[in-house]
Amino acid sequence: MDEEDTDGYKEPCNQCAAVDWGISDEGRFYCRSCHNVIERTREVVDMSFTSNSNRISRIGNKSRIRKSERGYIWMLCEGFQFILQNQADALLRLGVAPQFKDDVLCQMWRLYLQKSQQGYTRNPIRNLRFRGAALDSDTDMDSAAESVLSDNFTDSGSVLCSSAGSNAESSSDWLGSDYSSTGTSASWKRSRSLMTMKKTLALIHLALVWSREALTLSDLLRLVKEGHVPYVTAYEDLPEEMKLCGPDALLFHVESIPSHRSVHKEAQVLVQFLQLPAFPPIIPEALLHPAPLSLRYLTDANLPDELHRWVCVLMDRAGMADQKRHTLDGGLRPILPRYDLQAAALIIVTIKVIFGLDDHTEWDLSNKADSHDDKADMFSFRKWYKLVQAALVEAQQRRDQDTARKQWKGKKLFFVDKRDRLIVTKRRRISENVQMCLKRLSSCPAAVHYVGPSSFQFCWGDENGSDGPSLHHTKLDGVISLSNGFMTPLNLNYWHPPLRPCNPRTCVSHYPSMEPTLPRSFVWLLQLFSFMLDVEAWYLFDEVLEMERRVFGIKTPQIGQQVETRKWLRTEKTNATQTGDPVKKPRTPRKGRNGINI
Fold first, then answer.
1. Residue 345 CA to chain centroid, in angstroms?
2. Where in the numbering of this chain does the Rrn7/TAF1B C-terminal cyclin domain appear (predicted)?
3. Is 265 exposed, middle or buried (0-12, 13-18, 19+ CB in 10 A)?
4. Counting CB atoms within 10 angstroms of each CB, which of 34, 126, 213, 318 has the fewest?
5. What's the structural domain count of the chain?
6. Residue 417, domain member (yes or no)
7. How far apart are the C-alpha atoms of 58 and 548, rounded to whole Å?
C-alpha cells in the first residue's frame, strides 16, 4: 500500500540519500533507512464530499481537535487518587486486610486533601500547579486530625472520594472542623503540600503501619520493583478522559524505584505535615514487633531457631521489648521506626556476641563444632557460610537479570508537549526495531519462570527448587556451654568499631572509609542482610551501630573497644538461679574496666 502512494516521489533523503520512502500512521513520509520524517504527506481522495467530484484534500500539519475529544479540566490530586486506589487494590489482592483501604488509607488521604487545601474545605485550591494560591497555616486545622484519624476510625468511607466533585460545606461538617479561609502563610512550602509518586508509597507505608500489617517498607518496595504494586507505569491506568499534558504530567512519570531511605524520609515528613495522632501500639504479638520480625529474618537467612531466644535477650537489654518504643506518636515520639532495619541489626549484634565475627573466633568455633561426635545436628558457621554464600550469589544474579529485563518505559507514549509526539513516536519505532534486531542476533534466552510474591528471599529445604538444605533444626551446643544451670557463649569478647562524633545533618555515614578495616565476616553478614532488605550496606551499618549503643550502653567512644561480656553473662546466671529460666532480662548495667556499661 505504501509503494503505491510513494511511487511518484523519487527525491533522495536529505540524511542518507536513499530513495526508500514509507508512510507513517500520521500520513507523513519517512525514510525506511534512517527513519527521517519529512513534511510531505499522503494525498487522499475525499469521496464523502460529492460523488461526482474527484477533489483532492491534503492532511495538514495542525490537526483539528473536536471539543468532544478533549479531556476535562482535572486536579492533580485526582490523578494521584486513582493511582493510590490502584495501589491499594493491588495490596488487597496480595492479602492485606480490607480495612487497610477503607478505614485507614482513605482517611489519611482525606486528611491530606484538607491539610493541603485541595478538598474538604470551603475554599479549595483550583490551581493545577499550586502557584499564587492563598494557604492557611497548619494550626487552623489541628482539630481535624483528631476527628479524621480517631482511635477507632468510626467513619466507614468505602471509596477514595474525589475532591473536585465534593461538597465543601458537607466535607467540613464531616471532618468536624469549623474551617474558614481567613489568612495566608507566605512561608508555606509547596513541596510539602504537592503530592508526588514517592509520597504515594510513603502514605501507603504509614497506612500499613497504622493497620499493623506484616508488610515492612522493604517488603513494599520489593513488591513495587517486581511489578505487583503499580508505580513506574501507574499513569497508564488513569481514565481515558484524563489527558496527561504540560509540565505537571512529569509528576506521574518516573523511571526508577525510590530507595528505602528516601521513602522513609518522605513518610516522616508526612507524619509532621498531617499532624497524625498516636498510632495503635505495636504489641509483641504484632508482626512489626522485633520479636516476630527477627524470627522471620532468621528463617530467611537459614539460621538455627535456637538463636531467636538470644535475640530476645539482647532485645530486652536494649529496652526494645517495650511497645512504646515501636509506637509512633506525633506528640511524645514523632520518629517513625525502621522496623525491618532494627530487626536485622538486632540479629547481627546477636551473631557478633555469640560468634565474635573477628575473622578468627567464628572459625575456631566452627572447628570445635565439626570435631563434635554429633556434628550433623550442630550448627557450624563455616558450613552455614558456604551454603548461604552460594545461594546469595545465585540470587544476586537473578536479581540483576530481572533488573536488566525490566521495561522502564510504558506501552503508551508519554510526551509533555504535543509537538514532541512525532519525535517520541520515531524514538519508539527505532527502539523497537533495535530490540527486534538484537533478538534475532542473540540466542534464545532461558525460559523465565514466574515466581509469585513472597516475604522470603530464599527457600530452604529438601524440595525441588530450594536453595539448599535447612539448618533451622541445628543446635548451638558447639558455641554455647551449659554450666551450673545456665547457658554461656564460649565467646566472651565483643569488638566494637570506632564511632566518630559528627553532625547528622551534614554527615551521612563513615562506612565507606571504615569498610576496608572491618573483619570480612562482618562485612559479608552486612551484605547478606542488605540483600535481604534491598538496602545499602552503609544504611544497615549505621543501624547496627545504633543498636550496639542501646545494648551495651555505648554512646560516643572515640576509638574501637573490646567489651567483655563475662560479667554481663553472670547476671544471666543470677536471674536463672532465681527463676529457673536461663534467658531473663539482666540486672541494671554497671561500669566495667574501660568505663563502658557491661
1. 18
2. 256-440
3. middle
4. 126
5. 3
6. no
7. 76
Give the three-class secondary structure for 528: helix
CA distances from 569 to 97, 150, 239, 580, 598 (A): 43, 45, 63, 15, 9
Strand, coil or helix: what is 475?
strand
Decide if 430 contacts 493 (C-beta within 8 A).
Answer: no
d(CA 459, CA 120): 48
pLDDT by residue (tens digit) across 479-516?
888 767 778 888 888 888 765 556 767 777 888 888 99
- For cell 530467611, what's the residue? 300
Residue 58, domain member (yes or no): no
Taking alpha carbons only, the member of 487, 526, 546, 501 closest to residue 320 is 546
Same domain, 463 and 553: yes
Residue-number span of the structural domain to which 380 is assigned = 284-409+459-568
How many C-beta atoms lie closer than 10 Å to residue 526's C-beta?
23
Which grid cell is 545? 551501630
Integer Cα distance of 161 and 146 in angstroms = 20
Same domain? 311 vs 232: no
Closest by CA to 353, choosing from 502, 488, 493, is 493
Q: Are β-strands 28-31 and 21-23 bridged in parallel, bridged antiparallel, or unpaired?
A: antiparallel
* Residue of 344 and 129 predicted with greater confidence: 344
**If DSSP codes are grouped into helix, strand and coil, which group holds residue 421?**
helix
pLDDT at 98 exceeding the cut of 80:
yes
Neighbours of 149 (CB within 10 A): 22
CA distance 108 to 273: 11
| Consecutive H or E run containing 486 | strand 486-489
Cell numbers given for 546:
545504633
Q: Does 394 reside within a domain?
A: yes
Residues 289 and 261 in one domain: no
Q: Is 186 helix (H, G, I), strand (E, B) or coil?
A: coil
Give residue 490's pLDDT: 87
Q: How far apart are CA 405 and CA 386, in angstroms?
A: 29
